[in-house]
Amino acid sequence: MFQGLGTALTTPSTPGAPLLADASSRWVRLLPYVVALAFVASLLPTTVHLLAGDYGVNGALAGAIGTAQTAPLLLAVVRPLQAWWIIFAADVLGALVMLGADGTRAHLWPWTPPAVVGYCALMVALGLRESRRALFGVWLATGVAGYALEAFRPAGYTSVHTLLLVLSGVLLLLTSAVRARGDAQRRLVEQETISEAERARRTLLEERARIARELHDVVAHHMSVITVQADSAPYRIPELPDAAREEFTSIAASARESLAEMRRLLSVLRSDGSEGERAPQPGLDRVQQLVEATVRAGVPAELRLAADLGDVSQAVDLSAYRIVQEALANVVRHAPGASTRVSIRADGGWLTILVVNGPTAEARSAVERGASGTGHGLVGMRERVRLTGGSLDTGPLPDGGFRVAARLPLTQEPVPAAVTAHPEPTPTPDPDPDPTPAPPSPPNPNPNPNPNPTVKDSE
């Protein structure tokens, strides 16, 4: 309850809303009304008795002034500045009435003790709600009124306007500082939320650009084949009609133009000055080398690779390799020493990839740290399966391990319309905090390096 009260005190309410209106506890939300009612119940009879008994004010007039000085404290819960105007005017009017009274036991001027207590309570409500400019105006008006009434102080009275000025200034300063601290914390949380969303969005865009650069080579290869076939058709088929020759010439020209456009697009994607990769894009034929590199990194890994995967398109071949690469890289970083199984098989026109690692203490802590990470790995995997029209399932296992399961179509298919019609929302940070793939292994002339993972062919 006390923690909720502290949070509510430092959270500014919207204009017109009660103090502590944003508190989660109902009792905390009712607390301002209870406190205001307690002040009114205790100060109202005390003020009336003091004005009538000590200052000699008429009873009815004393009741009216006492009510005006205390009852607006209930209004201060919702609109403290409006309540201040009423109480301030009532205090000044009360001082003028006391000036004409003939009480013999009065000794304080120009504010009565109940008026000082009620005014200080009002300062707390003001400091938690109003702007610093309004608070300074309230404090300045209090000082001016006090010093102005000081000029009319009757003989034998003790001045308390300096005490009220100091108390009100201290209370306004403290409560406004509490409110300013709450404002700063709220803005900081909002900024962190925005930064996290922007970081996740930037991660997604970087992964898409990276995938586009890789797929450029695949598409460019097909376009080059189309160009060569269209250019060589008139020479390979001598009896080709003239209309067909012109058609092949047009196809070759369109293919060259498309290649030029792709190069321009690629230059935009590489506007950060990064150099293009000159090595051929990897595929499933290099998964064994990838697993061997993981074993050399200290992770016991087992590979089950189907003997016949069928006709796999280049885009799916590249995506499958990258998914395995990123999954193994995450095991090396976050679950060192955990046994890992990699399975790749073809079934019913789909390529199924499964990477499962066992539990380790490091793996569990990495999952906890990943809750606020900014990793690319799972983001990249999702983008690759989305590009090829497949599906991805990732998550922790009951025993503490982690599983990555992907299904990709063996033949490249377009992305479903439901995916392309609506942009993907900004993802939340993944439990995989790093996109960097596992250290690549250079081509090894020895097909069975030592140590060697277990490689099994499944039918």
TrEMBL record:
Q: What is its EC number?
A: 2.7.13.3
Kindly give the SUPFAM superfamilies that the UniProt entry links to this protein. Answer: ATPase domain of HSP90 chaperone/DNA topoisomerase II/histidine kinase
Domain Signal transduction histidine kinase subgroup 3 dimerisation and phosphoacceptor, residue spans: 207-272
Q: Where is this region: Disordered?
A: 413-459
Q: Which domain of life is it from?
A: Bacteria
Q: Where is the composition biased (Pro residues)?
A: 424-452
Instruction: Tell me the CDD domains matching this sequence.
Output: HATPase_UhpB-NarQ-NarX-like
Q: Which GO terms describe its molecular function?
A: kinase activity
Q: Which reaction does it catalyse?
A: ATP + protein L-histidine = ADP + protein N-phospho-L-histidine
The record lists the membrane-crossing segments as: 30-51, 57-76, 83-101, 107-128, 135-152, 158-178
UniProt keyword list = ATP-binding, Kinase, Membrane, Nucleotide-binding, Phosphoprotein, Transferase, Transmembrane, Transmembrane helix, Two-component regulatory system
* Top-level EC class as recorded in UniProt: transferase
Domain Histidine kinase/HSP90-like ATPase, by residue range, is 319-411
Name this protein carries in UniProt: histidine kinase
Q: Which organism is it from?
A: Streptomyces zaomyceticus
- Lineage from the top down? Bacteria, Bacillati, Actinomycetota, Actinomycetes, Kitasatosporales
